[in-house]
Amino acid sequence: MTPTILRDDDPRTPAAVRDALETGQTLIFPTDTIYGMGGNPWDDAALAKVRDLKRRSADQPFTLHVPSVEDVLRYAVVQDRLRPTLATLLPGPYTVILPALAGAPACSRSDRGIGLRVPRHPFFSVVMASLGRPLFVLVSQLIARAFLALGGAHAAVEMVLTWWWLAATAVSRSKTARPG
Predict the structure, then answer these.
(1) Is the pLDDT of residue 136 over 80?
(2) I need a labelling partner for 45 at 20 to 30 A (CA). Which of 1, 23, 64, 126 fits?
(3) Average pLDDT in the chain
């Protein structure tokens, strides 16, 4: 499968993201600080792809990125006294760890709670808000290094998407290869 690169302001982006989330695909997308990789937090295939590629165990939770501060309330218990603080910090480059609600995705919960972010970026405030969905996210050092080395987001994402596709293909082939 050849990677597709779409800008967050491309009118095709919401439908492409929705289709990717509904078919177990993974995404590379902007946050307010750097690019992340992730997908549908309830999709075992997408979770397995990211875990395989990053050699991440199932007991390490992913951060859940949501489109708005109101969406934080769908997945976490927020005491009234904390709401003004959340309204001040979010959206923004902060991860808050709060007690998880029962309906929060298992991939983002731990015994400490759930880590949530509301990125200040149009990909979340427009695209993901129009879909009303969260994403599980893993920020990749590979993406961060590519961004800095290549001097820009588009070149970094293109390089990382190529790496991602090659790595995913290699992982897929290694699982079907027979020894000897």
Answers:
(1) yes
(2) 126
(3) 80
What is 17-138's CATH number? Answer: 3.90.870.10
Do 70 and 130 touch, CB atoms closer than 8 A?
no
Q: Comparing C-alpha atoms, which of 11, 24, 15 is closest to residue 172?
A: 24
Domain boundaries defined on the chain: 17-138
DSSP letter string, the chain = -------TTSTTHHHHHHHHHHTT--EEEE-SSSEEEEE-TT-HHHHHHHHHHHT--TTSPPEEE-SSHHHHHHHB---GGGHHHHHHH-SSS-EEEEPBPTTS-GGGEETTEEEEE---SHIIIIIIHHHT--EEEEE-HHHHHHHHHHTSHHHHHHHHHHHHHHHHHHHHHHHH----
Other CB atoms within 10 A of residue 166 CB: 10
Higher-confidence residue of 175 and 139: namely 139
Least confident interval from 8-17, 28-37, 59-68, 149-158: 149-158
User: Which pLDDT band, with edges at 50, 70 and 90, does 49 fall under?
Assistant: confident
